[in-house]
Design a protein that fits this description.
57% of the residues lie in helices and 19% in strands. With 611 residues, the chain is of the alpha+beta class. Strands 1, 3, 4, 6, 8, 9 and 11 form a 7-stranded mixed sheet that branches. Strands 15-17-18-20-19 form a 5-stranded mixed sheet, with helices on one face.
């Protein structure tokens, strides 16, 4: 009876042992290990491999993936047995399918003892070029071995997934995996560079926020997938980046928040804008506080989750307000939120979408990035359309204003022309009357001159008449021309010389070279000056009443030059203070603000300059 009980116990033990054993052969290319393993949770974190070998508290596991979330306070031991069913030695690879676990210890039984091999973020093997930790095992023909793995994770989530691979199959899978990821990162990099150049040329701040977001997502994925740990960072920087994981996660989410705030113009919703601004101020402060407090490590992921949910709520609210871009952004939000949700569920071991869609996160992120890029492009098109419409309205408004102004100007111009014509008519009439009045005065003086027989007095009357005629001829010319700003100096001087010739019956040759016109206010002074100087020449310069007088008027840049020369006998000293010369000096210096020089050594040469 006793032997029968022992036999039954042996059968049950052998059955359980065989049930937990993982059988492989040379055709085994890929096999999941965890569901055929046993686990033990060490909350003391003190058990060694020697303790574990004797420990009978292992619990059979049936799950293919175990997720413990943020679990820095305990170690998880995994125990599994592999049997080589073939008749020759097999070399296999065990992949720990999670690149973010910080501490992994693999115990391989060899030469009658267990040899420890460390892996994980805190102990990356420099010879490893796979994204996930791997361990090489060797089984002789028909040999069975028991393997142990101790794993724990600080800061990052603890996810356990063990897969047995044939070497060629593993490296083929790894090459394909890294190639696909390289395409993903290449696409994200191109998106970032392309939109950065758009920002550089447009100076639209939305593109800068978008570039920062894409760069942040790219850096996060490099860390999350493990590429940065293998190919970019050394061990010291890997450990540092693990401790700064919350900052790395926060960067793209903050960039996304600023993008949503600017892109959807949240300022138009004052209450929500105030709430968002407050959270954006508090977010980095709270993240830094949680970074310093290890006891609150489990709560770090709530900050970005709350911000993401709030941003999504804002987008939905904007869409309800008929914000065109918000509808496009919502599509991208769906992909982004589902990617974050599946990453979170996977880290907790609740659901692993990557068994069905291995690259869902990468696909969702690049799809979402493209959607945001499309939304930005659509906004530019919309702004361009609005700008064109505004330009058309501005052009129409400008045309209307131009027409209106043209009508006003034409009307004003017509009135001004009428007023100007009336003014010119009045001025002409005034000049005509002044000329007639002066002519009357000249006639009266002429009548008075006839009544006297005193030659000297007659000469005085003649001089007065010529002076008045000099002014009268100016008004006569102004009356007959349309432009009253300038006077034709040649015509004016010619009238004066003719009048003097008639007054003094002498054979004097007068040569005029007039190459400038005079302003009206200067003409009267020049006429009087010419009258006085030529009168002096007629009266005193020529003994035989025969001689030459040369008159020149030219303009050089901004000054006039008047030269009046004769080849007569010149002035005597006492002649320099005559009334006529005093009048000439006064007119030149006070009225024309000019200079006069007189040379009477060889005839009389008068040189006058004024501006």
């Amino acid at each position: 009876m006793l032997n029968l009980k022992i036999l039954i116990v042996l059968i049950i033990f052998t059955t359980n042992l065989l049930a937990n054993t993982i059988h492989i052969d040379d055709e085994t290319n890929h096999k999941e290990l965890l569901s055929s393993s046993e686990i033990l949770i060490d909350k003391t974190k003190l058990l060694t491999i020697e303790d574990i070998k004797k420990n009978k508290n292992f619990i059979k596991n049936t799950e293919e993936l175990l997720g413990f979330g943020y679990s820095p306070n305990f170690n998880v031991w995994i125990k599994f047995t592999i049997h080589n069913n073939s008749n020759f030695t097999l070399n296999k690879i065990i992949e720990y399918n999670n690149s973010l676990t910080t501490n992994i210890e693999f115990y391989n039984y060899n030469n009658d003892k267990y040899i420890k091999q460390k892996e994980g973020l805190y102990s990356i093997n420099k010879q490893r070029y796979s994204l996930n930790p791997i361990f090489n095992i060797t089984l002789k023909a028909n040999e069975s071995k028991v393997y142990y793995i101790k794993t724990s994770s600080h800061i990052t989530t603890l996810i356990i997934d063990l897969i047995l691979w044939e070497s060629k199959s593993f490296y083929k899978k790894e090459m394909q995996n890294q190639l696909i990821l390289a395409l993903f990162f290449g696409a994200m990099t191109i998106l970032a560079i392309y939109n950065f150049f758009i920002y550089f040329f447009t100076k639209d701040i939305n593109y800068l926020f978008y570039v920062l977001y894409v760069v942040g997502i790219t850096i996060h994925q490099l860390m999350y997938i493990g590429i940065a740990h293998i190919y970019i960072l050394n061990q010291t920087w890997v450990i540092y980046s693990v401790h700064m994981a919350s900052m790395i996660v926060s960067f793209p989410i903050l960039a996304l928040a600023f993008l949503i705030k600017s892109f959807l113009q949240i300022k138009q919703y004052p209450f929500w804008n105030k709430v968002l601004n407050t959270y954006l101020i508090m977010y980095p402060i709270l993240t830094f506080i949680l970074l310093l407090m290890d006891d609150l490590n489990n709560y770090r992921h709530f900050l970005p989750i709350i911000l993401l949910l709030f941003l999504m709520t804002l987008t939905i609210y904007s869409a309800s307000k008929k914000n065109r871009q918000a509808f496009i952004v919502l599509i991208g939000w769906f992909m982004f939120v589902t990617a974050c949700l599946f990453m979170y569920l996977s880290s907790l071991g609740i659901y692993n979408i990557y068994d069905i869609f291995p690259y869902y996160t990468e696909f969702a992120l690049i799809f979402e990035a493209i959607i945001f890029s499309i939304a930005l492009t659509d906004k530019i098109k919309q702004l361009q359309k609005n700008k064109n419409e505004a330009n058309m309205k501005l052009i129409l408004q400008k045309e209307l204003e131009t027409t209106k102004l043209t009508n006003i100007v034409n009307k004003k111009t017509h009135h001004l022309k009428l007023a100007l014509e009336e003014k010119n008519t009045l001025l002409k009439e005034l000049n005509h009357r002044v000329k007639n009045n002066m002519q009357t005065i000249v006639s009266l003086i002429h009548l008075q001159s006839k009544e006297t027989k005193n030659k000297k007095l007659k000469d005085i009357f003649t001089t007065i008449q010529n002076r008045i005629k000099a002014m009268s001829h100016l008004h006569e010319l102004l009356y007959h021309q349309d432009n009253i700003a300038y006077i034709n100096a040649y015509d004016y001087f010619n009238l004066l010389i003719k009048e003097l010739n008639d007054s003094y019956d002498k054979k004097i040759n007068i040569d005029m070279k007039i190459e400038a016109n005079l302003k009206v206010e200067q003409s009267v002074y020049c006429g009087l000056i010419l009258n006085e100087l030529v009168t002096n020449s007629f009266k005193y310069a020529f003994i035989n009443n025969i001689g030459d007088i040369n008159i020149t008027l030219i303009q050089e840049e901004e000054k006039y030059i008047l030269d009046i020369n004769d080849n007569g006998i010149g002035y005597e000293k006492q002649d320099n203070n005559t009334l006529g010369l005093i009048l000439v000096n006064t007119l030149v210096t006070d009225q024309l603000d000019g200079k006069i020089t007189i040379d009477s050594k060889d005839g009389v040469k008068v040189h006058i300059e004024w501006k």
